[in-house]
Specification:
Blueprint lengths: L2 H17 L11 H15 L6 E2 L2 E2 L6 H13 L3 H27 L5 H9 L2 H6 L6 H19 L3 H22 L2 H16 L3 H6 L2 H21 L3 H15 L12 H9 L7 H9 L5 H19 L13 H18 L6 H23 L14 H22 L5 H10 L2 H6 L16 H6 L1 H6 L2 E5 H11 L5 E3 L18 E2 L1 H12 L7 E6 L3 H5 L9 E5 L2 E6 L1
Parallel strand pairs: 3-4, 3-6, 4-5
Antiparallel strand pairs: 1-2, 6-8, 7-8
Helix pairs in contact: 1-5, 2-3, 2-23, 3-4, 4-5, 4-7, 4-16, 5-16, 5-19, 7-8, 7-9, 8-9, 8-11, 9-15, 14-16, 15-16, 16-19, 17-18, 18-19
Length: 558
């Protein structure tokens, strides 16, 4: 296959699995509404330096990621597609870096689209690239920094200085997206690689150019942010980095040291299954030794560093999938060239398993999940989704057989990347909304009350649903009831205190609002166990509307 055609296939694959379905799935609460309302407020106010979440000062992350989303909202409007698009495009950038690195390591342009396709069809980047988070843009800047670092380690003189400066610029933008990991990840990987290569002098001299370039890149933005938000950097560096690394709170998910050793192979699926074969190919390519070492250092050193922190999230390993894609693509091609592929046993068995799963999906589509005692994960379209899944899995099995008839290693890798494409396209439709609690998936209930939320003079919500209320109603003045959680930023801003109240104070606030002339409409979203406290307060009349959805109650006074 000509390289141009292979690139065309790679880009079509990326659009199909990472872009086309961005607006289908409902927003995941609380993360996606949070990363939507902050940039939406920037667009609404025209102040892109003020970090506000529902009107509260929010200092947990730098603004670059929010600026990207705000730009997308400015073009496409306030919707799921717009706030997810930066993540998807960033995922595409990482895949392009993987292609760039594969070409640099092997010296063969035709390996580029293969690494792109492997990265684009790796489970972790594929899923996280469809979610409105800061991690995909961060991973993109880290990947650009690492790519430039690799080029810097392979060159000399002014060319090396230029690559190292570019690495620093990319790291600076990564810092403005998520913080000090932007320096720690490339730094740890580069030091491990140089030590592995026994380039002791370079370990002492090479870091200074990228560090200086990163500082120059960050400085003007840091100064602008400091002038607009004088307390930002102190809070962000001290609380969000050092304190939470040593003493993670419940939002940081404390995990054991081996956590990433499990999460990384899971996130690298389904290509994880090819690692042993790819390693055979890499061992048969001594001319790639330096490049392979750099890619392994890019994986191992950052994961080891991140494992030292008490707080761990699966998204932290996102920047490390690109080098794995490079190693898999190059290793599998070389393994095929060396005749190290097993073309019968395991592959044939997997195809029969896929066919059996497809038949089960067809049967369930016909009879329904409830008839066999299984809950339906989806709110509607159960039969259609199961039928599509059956077709997609059956197509995967057939395309896998086609892949094994490939005349060469590059065609084999490309076909294997394409084989599960219909299953990947189906991922947005598989979101199990019907199995989630109301606090995690309140959208249908909120749609029924959206007009009340928008017109109410006072809206109160628990912190777990406040982001979703703000998104659904387009409001930025929701009062937080109960535990303030992330709406309490420890900055002691007096003007914010009246908007954070306990459930025992919500009833008096409602009575006060209703006593105004003319009477103000009020809407409250709260846990069921807070309803008695609210309605039992003096002066609170029974609500005109009361709906219970799972463990969530919606109360409205008109």
């Amino acid at each position: 296959m000509p390289n141009g055609r292979r690139w065309f296939t790679a880009l079509l694959l990326f659009i199909a699995v990472s872009v086309a379905g961005l607006g289908i799935r409902p927003l995941i609460v609380p993360d996606e509404p949070r990363y939507g309302i902050i940039p939406a407020e920037m667009v609404e106010t025209g102040n892109w330096l003020a970090l506000r979440m529902n009107g509260f000062v929010y200092y947990e992350k730098p603004p670059l990621g929010y600026w990207m989303t705000a730009a997308s909202i400015s073009v496409f409007g306030q919707n799921a597609f717009a706030i997810r698009l930066p993540s998807a495009l960033a995922t595409g950038v990482v895949a392009l870096v993987a292609a760039w690195m594969a070409t640099r390591v092997s010296g063969r342009r035709e390996d580029g689209p293969l690494a792109f396709m492997v990265q684009a069809t790796t489970l972790g980047p594929l899923v996280l690239g469809s979610v409105a988070l800061l991690d995909p843009p961060f991973a993109a800047f880290v990947a650009l920094s690492m790519g430039a670092l690799f080029c810097g380690t392979q060159t000399l003189g002014r060319t090396r200085a230029g690559w190292l400066a570019l690495a620093g610029v990319a790291a600076g933008f990564a810092f403005l997206t998520k913080g000090l990991l932007a320096i720690a990840i490339p730094g740890a990987a580069a030091l491990m690689f140089l030590a592995w290569e026994r380039r002791w002098k370079d370990m002492l001299t090479m870091p200074w150019i990228p560090l200086a370039a990163a500082a120059v890149t960050v400085a003007p933005f840091a100064w602008m942010i400091h002038r607009a938000e004088p307390g930002f950097w102190e809070y962000f560096i001290v609380v969000e980095h050092f304190r939470r690394a040593a003493q993670p709170d419940s939002n940081q998910h404390p995990e054991p040291a081996w956590f990433f050793l499990v999460m990384f192979p899971i996130g690298a699926m389904l290509w994880t299954l090819t690692w042993p074969t790819a390693w055979k190919g890499l061992r048969g390519a001594p001319e790639w030794r330096s490049g392979v070492r750099f890619m392994l250092s890019w994986i191992v050193a950052p994961i080891a560093l991140l494992s030292l922190s008490s707080g761990k999230l699966p998204t932290y390993v996102l920047p490390m999938f690109a080098p794995a894609a490079v190693l898999v693509a190059l290793g599998l091609v070389r393994a095929h060239e060396l005749g190290a592929m097993n073309k019968v046993g395991a592959a044939t068995a997997v195809r029969w398993v896929l066919r059996a799963v497809a038949m089960v999906a067809f049967v369930l589509a016909a009879v329904g999940l409830r008839r066999v005692g299984l809950p339906a994960p989806w709110e509607e379209g159960e039969s259609l989704i199961l039928a599509w899944l059956g077709v997609a899995i059956l197509a995967w099995a057939q395309l896998d057989a086609w892949a094994w008839r490939a005349p060469d290693g590059r065609t084999w890798v490309a076909r294997n990347a394409v084989a599960p494409v219909l299953v990947m396209v189906a991922i947005p439709f598989l979101y199990p909304a019907a199995l989630l609690s109301a606090s995690k998936h309140p959208w249908r209930a909120f749609a029924r009350h959206a007009d009340e939320f928008r017109s109410a003079g006072l809206v109160v919500s628990g912190s777990s649903t406040a982001h979703a209320v703000c998104w659904a109603a387009g409001r930025r003045d929701v009062v937080i009831g109960g535990s303030a959680s992330e709406f309490d930023n420890e900055l002691g801003i007096e003007s914010e205190a009246p908007r954070r109240i306990g459930w025992n104070a919500v009833g008096p606030r409602i009575a006060e609002a209703r006593a105004a002339v003319p009477a103000r409409s009020v809407s409250v979203v709260c846990p069921n166990d807070a309803v008695g406290t609210i309605l039992g307060a003096a002066g609170v009349t029974p609500p005109d509307v009361r709906e219970t959805v799972g463990q969530l109650s919606i109360l409205s006074w008109r």
